[in-house]
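ok trying again, last paste got cut off:
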Amino acid sequence: MSKRPNVAHLLAQQVAEDVAQAAAAPEPAEPEAAAEPVKRKPGRPRSQREVANKQTVYLDQARYDALLAISADHGRSIHSIILEGIDNMIGRPRRRWGEGEGPAS
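nice, full thing came through this time. structure:
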């Protein structure tokens, strides 16, 4: 009588078959570097802005909805709308990224 193979034996057979197939398969050609452009998050890279302090802002639903609508209308982030509002209150001139002085100029 022959013994039935156990799970370890079956797994070992599968691994051996996979190794044999990998050895028989031709090596893939080197991928082209320009085939697909690298995607990155939109906006300014995190390391470009100096940060003096971090602050969490808790908003009620009405203020959040208003900021969300304003940011959608202007095609900008809620974060940039909040910073623009702070700049407006302290009298700092408004300057968008890429205008005037800055790394993008």
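cool. Helices lie at 7-24, 61-74, 78-90. Residues 56-98 form one domain.
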